[in-house]
Automatic annotation (TrEMBL):
Gene3D superfamilies in the record: 3.60.21.10
Protein name per Swiss-Prot or TrEMBL: Phosphoesterase
Residue ranges of every copy of the Calcineurin-like phosphoesterase domain listed in the record: 1-165
Keywords of this entry: Metal-binding
Enzyme class of the recorded protein, top EC level: hydrolase
Record InterPro entries: Calcineurin-like_PHP_lpxH, Metallo-depent_PP-like, MPP_YfcE, Phosphodiesterase_MJ0936/Vps29
Taxonomic source organism: Thermosipho africanus (strain TCF52B)
Length: 184
C-alpha cells in the first residue's frame, strides 16, 4: 500500500500537474489543507488557477483536511459533503492522526501528549510549508511541506508513505529526489 500525502497547494494547478502521474500510481491520497486559496500572507504561486485545479483534483479520490485558508465555497466547488479539520485513519494497522497544523504554530497543541492519550503512532500535518519527519517519545510527526509555496529554503515537496515490506515515510522534491525519510 502506498499513500500520497500533500499539503498547501494554494491553487497551483502547475505544481499539481508535476505530481499527477504519482497520484495515478498510489492507493490513497490525502491533502492536508490549503487547497485552493493562496491566503493573505502568501504570494500567488506559479500556475495559480483554482478553477482549473478543482477540475484536475476531481479526477482523483482525495481525502481532504480543511486548512486555515479553506472556505465553505472550496468544499462546495470540490464537490465534497464536508472537509474535516482533523481525522484519525489507520494505514494497515498503524493509527495516524491528520490535521492541517495551525494549532502547532500557535503553540496550543501538544502533539506528543495528544498522540499518547489517543494511541496514535504517526501525526501528519501541513501548514508550515516546511517538510519534516521527526520522532518524539516514540511518536512520528511528519509534514510533507508545500507543493507550491515552500518555506525555509526547501523545494516544493510531497510525501509517500510506503507500507509494503519495510514501512517508510519519504518526502520527495519534484524531481523525485529524496529530501527526508524514516522507517516506520
Amino acid at each position: 500500500m502506498k499513500v500520497l500525502v500533500i499539503s498547501d497547494t494554494h491553487g497551483s494547478v502547475y505544481y499539481w500537474n508535476k505530481i499527477k502521474k504519482i497520484a495515478e500510481q498510489v492507493d490513497e491520497i490525502f491533502h492536508l489543507g490549503d487547497v485552493l486559496y493562496h491566503g493573505p500572507r502568501n504570494p500567488l504561486p506559479e500556475g495559480y488557477n483554482p478553477k482549473e485545479l478543482v477540475e484536475e483534483l476531481k479526477k482523483f479520490n482525495i481525502n481532504y483536511i480543511r486548512g486555515n485558508c479553506d472556505a465553505d465555497v472550496d468544499v462546495k466547488v470540490l464537490g465534497l459533503q464536508e472537509m474535516p479539520k482533523k481525522t484519525m485513519e489507520f494505514f494497515k494497522d498503524i493509527p495516524i492522526y491528520l490535521f492541517h497544523g495551525e494549532s502547532i504554530e500557535n503553540d496550543n497543541f501538544d502533539v506528543t501528549s495528544f498522540a499518547k492519550n489517543h494511541n496514535v503512532r504517526i501525526i501528519l500535518h501541513g501548514h508550515t510549508h516546511i517538510p519534516k519527519i521527526e520522532e518524539k517519545e516514540g511518536i512520528i510527526i511528519a509534514n510533507p511541506g508545500s507543493l507550491s509555496l515552500p518555506k525555509g529554503g526547501f523545494p516544493q515537496t510531497y510525501m509517500i508513505i510506503d507500507l509494503s515490506n519495510t514501512p517508510k515515510i519519504t518526502i520527495y522534491d519534484l524531481d523525485n529526489k529524496e529530501v527526508l525519510s524514516k522507517t516506520i
